[in-house]
Every structure is written in C-alpha cells, then in structure tokens.
Amino acid sequence: MTTFSKSLKLQSGASIVTVAIMSLLPTAAFAETAPVTPAPASESVLASPQDTAVPVAPTTTASADSLPSDTARDIIVTGFRSSLRKALDLKQAAPNLTESILAEDMAKMPDLNLSESIQRIPGVAISREGGEGRNITLRGFAPDFTRTTLNGMEVPASTDGLDSGGFTVNSSRGFDFNVFASELFNRIDVQKTQRASIEEGGIAGTIDLYSGRPFDRPGTHVVVSGQGSYNTVTRKVDPRIATVFSKTFLDDKVGLLLSAAYSKRTVYQEGRSSVLWTSPQVNGDSWADTNPKVTGTPKPCGAADPLDCLYAPRLPRADFFGNDQTRLGLSGALQIKPIDRITITASALYSRLKNDRFNYNSMEWLLTHGPAGNQVGQTPVAFTVSPNGKELIAGTFNDVTSWYENRHQSSTSTFQQYVGDLDYKITDSLSFKMLVGTARDSANRDELRFYLHSIPHAYSYDYTGSVDVPQVSFGTYDPNAASNYTDALTAANRLNSIVKDNFTTKGDLTFNRGDLSLKAGFAFNRRLVRYGEANGASPTIKPVSQYMTAFPIPHFGSGVIDGGLPTFAVIDFDKIAQSGLISNQYIDNVGAGWQVIEKTTGGYIEFNDRFDLGSMALRLNAGTRYVRTGVDSRAILAGSGVRVDHDYGNWLPSVNVVLDFTPRLLARAAYARSMTRPSLSALNIAGPTFGYDTRTVSGLGNPYLKPYQSNDYDLGVEWYFAKGGLLSAAVFYKDIISSLTTAIVTQAVPQQYWAAIYADPRYSPAYQADPAKVPYTFATVVNTPNGNSVKGIELTANVPFSIFSESLAAFGVASNYTYVDARDSTGLSPNSWNVTAYYDTGTLGIRASLNHRDDYLISTPAGNGNLQARKAGSTQLDLSAYWNVTKRWALNLQGVNINNQRERYFDTGDGTQNLTREYTGTGRTILAGARYQF
C-alpha cells in the first residue's frame, strides 16, 4: 500500500448544504428540551436482527409541550419518513457507530439495487457496472476491506464484468451487490466501529444484510408488485416483478414467509475509448519516417524525433457493450416458538443472475508504430500537437489496419444460503444464541472473442473539439462492407469458473442484570475458493466475409453522444456456431487453476454497562476477540500437486463509549484493533514463472502472508433535535500497522515447490539452480510494518421541515458529506456527498436523490507509460414517487440517472495529463408500476 498524506481538509460540496441547513434551523429547535418518549407502537423498529443485549439511550416520559411537533400528537408516520426515523432510532441506541437502512414496507427497499441504497450512508461510495451499482468502498477502502454478512453469516457473491475491463469473474473478497434483488431484503446495517462480538475481517467495516422473517410482522400479509422499465439508450421495456407471502399461525407461535423477485434488464453501454494513450518511445519504436505535416510544437524529450515522445490513442474505437440480464431471487423463512423462551428460525435464500453479452469494438491499430504492413503499422500523414506539447490530439494516417473486437460472453452466478438459528432465553438474565449456516456462490462464464482484420485504409481522429469524443474519418473506406475484412483471429475461446463455499457455526451466551451485560461467544468459519479455467481451439477464420453481418444495433450511440456513432460490420455468432469452425470441446488449463481454504476459529468476551453521571449517562462497550486463521493454498505446477499451509493468530480488543449529555445529544468515542486478511490473488500459488538460468521466481502468490492490521480511532457527536432529525459529525483515523507490498526477496525456495521444479521440462541441473541447494530471487507480495494512515470526517444533516411549520411536516432533507484523506489509495474519492429531498404524506410521496463522488484511482502504474489510471467523478440524480390510491393499491414511478451521467476513465500520462481512456453511457431509466397488498 502507499503512504497516506496526513493533511486533513474540509472541501466544498455537501458540507455547504449541511452548513446552510444548520443556519436555517429555528433557534427554538436548538434549545434543550425534556427527553423524548419512545416511539409509539405504530413506529416501532422492525424486529432487530442484531443483538439487542446492550445498553441503549435513556428514555423518560415527557410532557407533550416539550416534544418535537409531530411526535407530540402521536402521528402515525409511514413510507420513507418512517424508515428514516426508525434508522435514526437504531443509530442512537447502538453502542457502536452504526448506520441502518430499513425497508419502507415489505419488499420495498428505498432503491432498486442494494448498493444504491447503501451509498446514501456517509462514508460509502459505489462503483457501477453497466449503470448499476456493483461494489462499494467504505471510508476510502477498496471492497476487499469490507466484510459482508447475510442473516448473520459471512457470505460470498461473485459475478463478472460488463465493461471493457471485465474479462474474468470476481475471485476476490469483494462482494458483488448486483447479484441480489433488493426486494428480498428488509434491513441493512453498516457497522463502522468494531465490537468484540462482531466477527473480524473488515478494517473498513461490516455490512449486515437481512432478509424478511414472518415474526417481523405477525399476521397475514401478501404483497404483489410489478414494474415496467424503459431505458433511453436501448429503447426497450423490461419487466420487474416481486411477491411476498407472510403468515403467522397458532397464536403467532409459528410463522412462514416466502418471497420471489424476477427482473429482466437490457443494457447498452455505448461510447468512445482509446484503450489507453501511449507513445512510440514507451514501446521502444518510432513513427514511420514519412515526413508528416505537423501543426503545433512538440515538447523536446531527448529523442531524435520529439514526435516519438508524444502520447496518442493506442486503439481508438467506438464501443458497444450489450447485456441481456435476468435476475431471479427466492427466499423463505420458517419460525417456530415452541415455548415463550425459545425461537427457532430456518431461512433460505437463492439468487441467480444471468448475463448474455455481445460486445463490438471498432479498434484502429495504432498500438505499434512503424512502416505499414503485417497489420501492425501505418503511414502518418498529418499530426496536430496539443498546446502543452505532450499529445497528438489529431492524426491522419494511410495504411491503417482495423482490429475490430467482437465478443460473446455468457455468464451465470448462482447463490444459495441456508441458515438455522436458535434464540433461547434460559432465564430472565441468561440467554443463548446459536447459528449454523452454509452459503455457496458458483459463478462461471464462457467467452468467444475475435479480432476482425481489415484491408489497409485511411483513418483520422481529431480531439480538438472534445477531449472525450473525437471526430473520426475513414476517407473512402467503408467499415460496413464485409468484403473489406480479410480474416478473423480467435483471440479467446475459454471458460472461467469460481466456486466460493462458506460454512459458519457460532454461539453467544449473554448474562443481563439491569444495565449490565456480559457476553461470551465462539465462531468457526470455513471458506473455500476454487478457480478453474479451460480453453478451446482458437483458429484463424479466412476468408471471413460469409460469417459477418451488418451492425445489429439501431441508433448506435445516439442516447449517449450527439450525432451517434459510426456503425461497422461484425461477426455473426450464430453463423459461426452453425459452421462448426469453433469446437465446443475444452481442455482444462490445470496450471491456471487454484484453491484456497481458510479456517478461522475465534472467541470473544464483551462487557456492556451504563453509568449515571449526574444528569448524564455513560454507556460502555468493551471486550476482546481472539481468532486463529489457517490457510491452505493448492495448485498444480508442472503436473505436480503443491500444497502450502500456514496459520496465525490475532488479538482484537475494542472499546466503544457513548456519553448521553441529554436524551437527544450524545458523543461517541471508539478504539479497536481490526484486521483484513490478504487478497485471494496474493495467497494463490498457481501459474508462477521459474527462471532457472537467473534463479528467479515471479507470479507466485504468498500463502505465508499475515493480515493487514489497523488501530482504529473514532470520535463523534450526534444531536437528535427532532423526531427524524439529526445533526452529526464524526472523525475517524485508521493507523495501518501491518500492510502488504510487492518486494524483491532472495530466499530459499520452500520445499513444497521442489518436486514441481524438478518435474519442469525446462529445468536442467546444468543451470546449477537446484532449489534444495541455492536461493532464488522472488518478486512477490510480503508483509511490511511500514504504517499508512486513513483519516476522514463525516457530516450528516437530516432535517424534517416540521421544525419550521406544521404545514411542512411532509417535507424534509436527508444529507451527508464525507471527506477522506489517503494519498493514491485505489477506489478512494476524497469527497463524496448525498442529498435527498422528500415529500411524504403516507398517501403521496416523491423524493429526489443526488449523489456525488470525486475522481478515484484505478491502478498505478497504469501501463504503456501512464503513471495512473483513474475514473472521473460523477454526480447522479434519481427520482422516486408513489401514490397510495387505496389501502391496498399503490402506483409508483422511478427515474434512475435522470441527468444521464456518463462514465469516464482517464490516464495521467507523465502524471500531469488527462487522457480519456473511455467515455460511455447507459442512458436514463424510467420505471412505472403498481403494488397490491392484502
């Protein structure tokens, strides 16, 4: 990891919104008043899935005159306002810093995608895939540093990517939230500070997902909903349906809940890209010496021809990434209460996400430079140099060869989870909870990819009018004529698969006496990840024109770029399949396969209490956790099976303190030691390269790695100035005391690899490189004690407008702002903010949500002479409205990405440049539907 900057600054953004809102609040609203009463029964929090045996904020009875305006009249609040209120109740009562999102009703989360809901929480930013949220970063950390649980156990979820970077399925620890339908869930908790009773693994935090249970809402409930979804780029309508049945029997002693959700989604991601910018000098070559016309002055660089130092697009192209996606989700829960003190729950969840993708990219070959011929050269005719003298922002060429990329990818991700848990109140003071669960995610993808080669032709690009979308010309050449293509190179014909299996069993024993509680528990986890790969035949098809067809997508690019994009002839995958040219027989690439098994055994003790300090109350949560981790990494090297085992232990103390100045105003402080285990790619040992003449090893994972470790410090102040109102500020500092880095290390080769080396046909005793006798030099990932730091601030302002006037009680604003200080950390946006304005009467409601995040780092170095690859910041506007026509019928309307935000990736060249790599969009999406419940 990199060393992080230690400066901490407040930036412009939503903080301005927060300050403005604070300045508008009436003085009376800020005055100290008597404590508030607990929420009435109609507003009670959903049955809490998380442990509630902890001290909560004190509550006492108050006169009606002292209460916030809408609470004093015992108004029943429903919908979005109700879910906000309940979430704030949970936040205030929690012993650690926790944020919650609650369903507005059964099968009705606030957003269509789980990650889209989570991004409304301060400290959270998401990355999107084809216009839909996929991964999250929490407090500036990459997805691998956030642990995700479902119904109490850690779970895996993997799928593959849509855009040009998504060549493989997700084999990391990061969680893919787009696997699940949001209708299956009723609550999300984000644990930002640690407790001993929270399992380890997330330095950034833990996200807890909960599906519905029948005891959450006793009685009989049935919900059916349906929507039609229209996208402005695809111009197609897709269905989205969901249903929930929940019923309790025998005086609410038995309950059953069943739910299902199904959706289809057609995605067209269209635009322009360069596939990186580079210079001939970086690649060790030069432009052909054709004396081109040059406009502008190249910056001197020491090369014989300064043009060779200038950055130009490698593979300028028009992009089409199409995806026909289907998502099916099923869940069920059975709850039994044989006696009042025992609750037994069995739950199951199934999800299947299928993607069928056709991608077409019209690449023009400028990757290598030199004389025309062999499909990799060109003849420069004219160049225009950028004002800074570092880029060729326009170029005209003859003898350019097209390498048009055509891909068909089909993938399926199937998730299954089965959990049984027991809640036994042994006595009024003693309780025991037990959970046993298993979860499996199986993701696979098959890919067939061709490069269509054209005859040499004229080509020009020009970025002078736009840094993102160049003007292009082919002269008299017609890219739509199949006769202009000579052959198709099969670049990939392969299968990839990832299987992730988790097993968990854990138990918790809690003793309560008044405000005091003592807890102790254990947990055992077994996590298996297995990767496999197979390859098929990859012939060159020549001639190819009879296997081609016209560009199949109408109005290409018109929903993203003014004037649309030029079309071109493409491979007809149906004709290829019928021809038998590509065999469907695959050979396992055993050398690329790998398996990692982690077993963790842990235990904890935790103490909770509440102390009166005059008119104030102090809540204390303290404890420690110990966990032992065993790693078993396996692969096949040179035909020999290799297995490497390693284990390590960690003590993880934590303290959370809450000082309730009044029942509305509190301060928090927390300390914890946290950990995140190394990435799976760093642990797997497949596919190394041994250099016997140089005694070197590269590409070999390191199963002996120990985890990242951090000392975490948090401070916060929260003011619940009205029912549903909150002003808060929190600062955090994470001191990474153990990290990972890539290093050159000379050491003995572990004995587990000797047999594979001896069996390698490239090995010879003549090299005098016997691993049993001489050390090798490794380029590998190692632990480092060099500390890094991440620090930041989170501001929240949730303002119900009832504090201004009773006539405005249905209006409000929920906003937050986050600043994170960490230099060059992957996935980190220094500034992010969210603002949601809402009107909600319980009968009619509308809300508008604006979300923003700054630029963030993708990788460094970025390759081809670029210091960094980055993604540009984005601001997205979403709308949602409903009308409860009757008590049973409701109509709804939603808009996603109303402002038609595009996605932009760029490279930084020498570190000072801003070179567009990809500029694409997926358009606006409008959903309209109805909901019926009885």
From TrEMBL:
Domain TonB-dependent receptor-like beta-barrel positions: 459-897
Location in or out of the cell: Cell outer membrane
Keywords: Cell outer membrane, Membrane, Receptor, Signal, TonB box, Transmembrane, Transmembrane beta strand, Transport
Residues annotated as domain TonB-dependent receptor plug: 92-206
Pfam entry (one): TonB_dep_Rec_b-barrel
Keyword Iron: no
Membrane topology value: Multi-pass membrane protein
GO cellular component: cell outer membrane
InterPro entries: Beta-barrel_TonB, Beta-barrel_TonB_sf, Plug_dom, Plug_dom_sf, TonB-dep_rcpt-like, TonB_rcpt_bac
Signal sequence region: 1-31
Keyword Signal: yes
NCBIfam families xref list: TonB-Xanth-Caul (TIGR01782)
Family membership noted in the UniProt record: Belongs to the TonB-dependent receptor family.
Name of the protein this chain belongs to: TonB-dependent receptor
